[in-house]
Amino acid sequence: MLTxxxxxxxxxxxxxxxxxxxxLPEQTVWIDMLTPTRDxxxxxxxxxxxxxxxxxxxxxxxxxxRLYEEGGALVxxxxxxxxxxxxxxxxxxxxxxxxxxxxxxxxxVDPLPFSMFVxxxxxxxxxxxxxxxxxxGVLEQIAxxxxxxxxxxxxxxxxxxxxxxxxxxxxxxxxxxxxxxxGRAGDLATKAKDSLLGLNRLxxxxxxxxxxxxxxxxxxxxxxxxxxxxxxxxxxxxTKVSFLLDATLGMINIEQNNIIKLFTxxxxxxxPPTLIASIYGMNFKVLPELQWRYGYPIAxxxxxxxxxxxxxxxxxxxxx
Length: 320
Prior knowledge:
By secondary structure, this protein is α+β, with helices and mostly antiparallel strands. It folds into two domains: 2-254, CorA soluble domain-like (Beta Polymerase, domain 2); 255-316, Methane Monooxygenase Hydroxylase, Chain G, domain 1 (Up-down Bundle), CATH 1.20.58.340. It is 59% helix and 16% strand. The protein has a seven-stranded mixed sheet. It is rod-shaped.
């Protein structure tokens, strides 16, 4: 899908292109390409006189492949956190191309920051007064979204912490659910840190360009400070996740040890009765107690007593 943001008589217009694009409106400031076709890429490359990286090229991790200048256009690629509120968060690459006064975005996912930014434009069209401002506005929205995601993950970690350390009835299935929640938070924190790293590199690259307007650079410096603080929070969250993961595994080990201990105590408690039963189950011709009138109830009593005494002993030792 190809979406154009352009001004007509001072009013911001949003146009979804259906079919092959022949020409751009004169005051186009932002071209958003979502899952573009080969024809879309060819048309935009011709109209802007730039080379658009393919989806495979966007996935390359070398800095030289993600941040470079070509033909007077700045090509910047970074991972953006997507589907953060689902069970399978995704870190997908998005390419920003600043070609003169126009911004081109190429993406194959639809992260929430883009739709949020588009909704903001209905109230604040000045956010896309130029391609540079549109770029910084989208990046600010991405940083805000990352902050919200990490705040939610931190709150979830606090809930998990209370469940682990302040509840006395946390058992097997609960611990399994907690382990899954901790793993999801860890995965989310990792992908958020990856996105923050890409955002920081992009801002450093963009800040080193000489043609960027002064007011845009001021916003970029503020965004870099925000990114740094969010990255610190992501590092804290990763540490918290590691701690809770170790704690959860420790609780699982304790529960398993308690089960093993229970079976061990039961085995020890029933060992003396088994010994007594084995003695009187031997097939020797002479067993003096076989002639006792009360031998059977006495044997049963001995077996019961030999089972009860270890049980009482274990209870006093608080092994049960």
